[in-house]
Design goal:
The chain is α/β, with parallel strands linked by helices and 223 residues long. The chain is built from nine helices and five strands, in the order H-E-H-E-H-E-H-E-H-E-H-H-H-H.
């Protein structure tokens, strides 16, 4: 069962359509409006790990790329394409991980994107006021639209897991969902990774997804 949790379906990609909004409907609507040509061009999204920040940033970059425009995403750094002024949309994930040089890069990028009309998405674990970054950068990040990304309730996670299973073409038994929520890691990316591993493992064994197979997956994860 080596690398089971890394065996994620290569065809699955984060999109705005497969994001389970939960309490984030207003944010999702604002991003769709911006992508359709709305006037707001800078977003700062904050929330705990696993809340869906990365999903949203990657989904927006994918939407722009699919429309044949230049877009770039990076986690904990400023994308090289952005530094060279070649991207119409830039997404910088985990802004609190930027070093001093990268913070200066992002500050300059913010000003360039504002002047050019490009779209900038930045995410972090805390609201701008509480970020341990340069004061001028924190101020810039607070100028645009700021949204907290709320994590999902257990019922919303069930919906997300069922939707993900359907996208992979298999039915998810309720008892499997319940066991995963009770014994798996709580953040949605880990839950989806476990589900992907369960699907791959069940296909490998030519057996339907079940709680015993899920137990094998989780034992391997925490073993």
């Amino acid at each position: 069962m080596s690398q089971l949790l890394l065996d994620i379906a290569p065809g699955w990609q984060p999109t705005l359509d497969n994001f389970v909004a939960g309490r984030n409907l207003e944010l999702l609507s604002a991003l769709r409006h911006a992508l359709a040509g709305g006037s707001e061009r800078c977003f700062y999204l904050w929330g705990e790990a696993g809340s869906g920040r990365s999903h949203l940033l990657q989904a927006c970059v994918r939407a722009v790329s699919d429309a044949r425009h230049s877009a770039s995403y990076a986690q904990g750094s400023v994308p090289r394409m952005a530094s060279e002024g070649l991207a119409e949309m830039v997404a910088v994930d985990d802004v609190e991980r930027l070093d001093e040089a990268a913070q200066i890069e992002l500050f300059d990028l913010y000003n360039r994107m504002r002047d050019s009309g490009g779209m900038l998405l930045v995410s972090g674990t805390q609201a701008p006021l509480h970020l341990r970054l340069r004061d001028d950068l924190r101020t810039r990040l607070g100028w645009g639209l700021v949204y907290q990304v709320h994590g999902l309730s257990d019922e919303e996670k069930k919906q997300a897991l069922m939707q993900h299973a359907q996208s992979r073409g298999f039915a998810l038994p309720p008892e499997v969902t319940q066991y995963l929520l009770r014994h798996g890691r709580r953040d949605l990316p880990s839950l989806l990774a476990a589900l992907d591993a369960l699907d791959a493992h069940s296909l490998r064994l030519h057996r339907a997804p079940s709680v015993p197979l899920l137990k094998e997956i989780l034992q391997h994860e925490f073993g």
